[in-house]
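Service request form, structural biology core

Requester: graduate student, group of Dr. S.
Request type: structure prediction, single chain
Budget code: on file
Notes: please return the result as structure tokens.

Sequence provided:
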Amino acid sequence: MNVDGIHLVFPLPDQSSLSSIAPDLYVKHLLRSKHVGSLEASLNLHGFSLNSARLMDFGQVGFDFFCISVQCNAENNQIEDENMAIKIVFRYLAMIRSVGPLNWLHNELRLTLQREFAPKGKLDESLEPMDPMINLLLHLASDDYSLATRLQRFSQRDALTARHLITEYSAQAIADFLTFLTPTGVLCTSLILVGIASRLQLPDSQWQALLRAGRSAG
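Core staff response, request fulfilled:
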């Protein structure tokens, strides 16, 4: 069975108007933490790893998706293992909600983004200082949004800097964002289920039933 990962996809309202606060980046900053007690550490204890946590860019307008992806391996490829990984993610999200938004943590994120977005000195000692445009292109290449989506969603003035240079803090906006990251309404997909359906050659109706069973199990 080809096992790749578990993907938890959360539908969201359009996040474009919140680019100066970037609640999704605040949550991503917490989920990607490598400190003791982090989500990554908890998943590692059970043989999983966090693959990504980010907004998804399908070129959509008027709504968004936030996706948390967990990497599996050949040893933890059973439905029971998948359930454990999903529970770990939701328990961690519940903990973040219970603690509530933290101004100092958002400020840490703001300074980190500002430092990363500013032109750097040198890639290595043998190269000339990085051109600001090269630095900008490197950031856009790894950005959650494509350049086309940025031009579609943001004003011409903010198209390149939006979400890289956050300038505001709103505990309410972050708390509202976290209310969407719950088991209610989440779409959970996994190549574990895809592999089962493929091997059994299930018709579409039974495949959809299998997906629903997987979501309810989480």
